Amino acid sequence: MENIIGKRIKEIRMSLGYTQQQFADSVDISKPMVSYIESGKKTPSRETVSKISNLANISTDYIMGLSDNKTSEEPSASDVMLELKYYIDRVETFDDETKEFAIKKIKALISGLDIEENK
User: Fold this and answer.
1) Same domain, 20 and 52
2) Any idea what the Cα angle at residue 7 is, between residues 11 and 22, rounded to 5°?
3) Which of 101, 40, 90 is nearest to 65 (CA)?
4) What digits encode the pLDDT tens for the residues 31-67?
5) What DSSP string runs through 18-53?
6) Which domain holds residue 100?
7) What domain count does the chain have?
8) Which residues contact 34 (CB under 8 A, 6 or more apart)?
9) Phi first, then psi: what are they for 2, rounded to 5°?
10) How far apart (Å, rounded) are the C-alpha atoms in residues 106 and 86?
11) 8 A C-beta contact, residue 53 and residue 18
12) What secondary structure letter does DSSP report for 1?
């Protein structure tokens, strides 16, 4: 299997002029992990991909091999999923009553969006 993710991450690191250690420090992973990712032995976490994307101003879809466009005007599917996961994680920390309230509000918002979209 082709190591497109590792190749693209190495390309990004090199374009930034970073050593593996500098790159690792910039995205909060270890130097060996950078080496494993670049060689295709490991796959980066979504969080790491997001940090690389922000560091280099390159779309997560490009990093993951889902697009050949390095930048995107619209948020990528990966970016949207990361943001949704962030809010889901936040809701999970709420007490039961607050969690139930938040879920009701989210459902109402989505129902409203569905109505608007179907007009």
Assistant:
1) yes
2) 50
3) 40
4) 999 999 999 999 999 999 999 999 999 999 899 988 8
5) --HHHHHHHTT--HHHHHHHHHTSS---HHHHHHHH
6) 77-117
7) 2
8) 9, 13, 20, 23, 24
9) -70, 140
10) 14
11) no
12) -
CATH of residue 32's domain is: 1.10.260.40
Q: Where do we find the tokens 């129902």?
A: 111
What span, in angstroms and rounded, lies between the C-alpha atoms of 112 and 106? 10
Three-state SS across 55-99?
HHCCCHHHHCCCCCCCCCCCCCHHHHHHHHHHHHHHHHCCCHHHH
Q: Is the pTM of this model over 0.85?
A: no
Contacts of 57 (CB under 8 A, 6+ apart): 71
Q: What is the reported pLDDT for 76? A: 64
Determine the Cα–Cα distance for residues 53 and 59; give it in Å rounded to an integer. 6
Q: Exposed, middle or buried, 82 (CB in 10 Å: 0-12/13-18/19+)?
A: middle
